Structures
1.
Amino acid sequence: MAHSAGRFPKTGLVARAVCLLFAAVWGPAARGQPQHAPPEHVTPEAAAEQLGGVTRITVHAREQSPTTVLREIARQAGVGLDDYDVRETLGKSPPLTIDVEDQPFWQVMRSVTTRLGIHAAFRERPDFWSHESGWMLELRSGADTRVQGPSRVEGPFVIVASRSVRSRYLTEPSEPPRGTQAMIDLIILVDPRVRLRGRPSGRDLKVLDDRGNPLTVVGPEYSWPHDVQMLSPLMWRLTAVVDLPEQGATRIGKIQGVLSDLVATVESERWEVSDLSVVPGADASDKGSARRAGGAQFAIRSLIPEPDGDERQFRLTLASFGLGETADFGWPARTGDDRAAAIELLDGAGRRYFAQSWEEAERGVWHVRFRPRVDKENEPVGDPAKLIWKLPTKVVEIDVPFEFTDLPLP
């Protein structure tokens, strides 16, 4: 693939005409897309089926080192594992014997790490240098009380009732008392196959005390979480708050509701571009650098060398507008992490570049910078020769019901 002086060939009047074409196709008219209906609501089981199943683990180990067991779990889950911080701890731990057959990833990982007195959490940002999936699971010292407690599996999610506490507001003597409240923390553990858009929320919350009396939920019924916090991309915490009677309530008898706004891509279309010399300014009608999928428009605008000192680097510019790509009613905007994970850049031998960074240049237009990724044989990576972009064709909102009974209330 020939190119000159840091830019793929595309000059003169043809390039200017093509730029004008893109301005027409991707200009204000395209950006002012009419609002669409929100994503279809599906059950966790339906979402799991559309995803091709959830991540399930089978391990039968006899007197194996903890490191060996944990690496096997990560391998089956298709994620990377960083055990640097706990190598000394794992080295002193006795061998593990474990028999697990076709169990959800998070259930197995929670069980093993709890036995070892450590905990696991995914890095806050995808790391495509360390692992092709971008997911890197870090092991850290100390048990993580946030993911301990009663749990239930719902399709690609594990819901944990991790904590319930009683709180009382302090007021000035001249002010009326504000009463006592209970705060209940729920943890959502997300299957590695799922990349969420936006932030989860909740609705239809009902809470009973240990005598069966309903407790007043603080906040609107359609959005009860008081605090939504991303602990990692695959771990979220939501807090429910209820008013307690002055006397009598010693436990939470039942809490039930629905976790909502869990929006994710469940089906995609593979778009493969094998002649990258046509990418800069390519005309959708005859060059194949623009495509429609799932109610949205996608375009590969350019791929240019952008060296960083002595490091080889290429900047890919992408554009996407329409259903689910730019802001629309009921459609949370896709994150840059989600977009970067949908793109592969390869050389002629299939060796990968990795996404080093990504940023939104303007509404609907993204820059993704790639660097060569050293393969296992330390073979040098050649010039980019193929681009694969997974275009979302079906996006759904997954409604996750939950119910827990007899929770302690300190």
2.
Amino acid sequence: MKATTTILLSVVAATWAAAIPNPYPSPAPAPQQDFFEDSLETASYQAPVIQPVYESEPALYTFQWEVNDDYYGNYYGHQEHRDGPITRGSYYTRLPDSRLMKVEYYVDEYGYHPTITYEGEAQYPTPQAYQPVHHNVHPGKGDLYL
């Protein structure tokens, strides 16, 4: 009985192994020609490069804006004037130490040239000791955490 079972299982296993096809075919061989050199040799036409023409004038503008919000303590602004290659302007802001920082600048072909000044004297408030707030927690009916 053992011999018959062993032979039967061997025949079934051999038949089953022979019936399963290879699910993945072998990959195709890599091409042997150099596509880059071939494309350079066969290229015989080059389209002309047409650069767009843009009408332009020397820049000329002026702008100014400012924020002065006493409630939140915001105080800053900016103004600028440009005429051709020369730009002049200034901006300012109130610093956290209560000083006013002003920057006056000009921009020319050599770059950005700022002059920075400060008005007022730095004032630092005395720090207050941390006072934690305590809350008494009373769980209500139906609360999961008792």
3.
Amino acid sequence: MQPNRRVPNKLGKALVDAGLLDEEGINRVLDQQQHTPGRFGDVALRLGLVAEEDMLKILSEQLHVPLVNLSQYSMDPDVVRMIPESHARTYRAIALEVAADSVVVGMSDPSDLNALDVLAQVLPLPLSPVLVASESLNRIHNLYYSNDAEIEKVAQRIEVESSDRSAPKRVELKLQNQQGASAADAPTS
């Protein structure tokens, strides 16, 4: 076995140690990163070299953060909405539950210190991050937040339509009032 021409990051080494990635796979990821910047794990997933579930297990161990399967999680819409949609989508997070002294927050990257800081500012309690699959997170975002956007769009459309419909009625009533006034103003003999 020839020596690595480049050294992978901690995740790459952990994937090799777990038998999930070989030297050729590491080199493919590192080559791809030269052309298209991205995190090692994201590139390995995009290239189909590692299954997301396997990578999440390794990340969970590395980060000492629990791994949560969102499809087996019961969510409270009020808790989910503790994180505004813009923050949830930008920082790839979802509020899962309120514990005694913290809010459990599912994140696709719980090592993102900037995301942790921003989310801590919008939550009423300290946050406890857990790791979640990115695709599951997308589905949950679309399920819980898209409805808000759709409801807002429908409400605006109804408001516009109802104001459009009432305009002819107002004109018609005004004309009737004017005609009635004209008839009342006419001299009677």
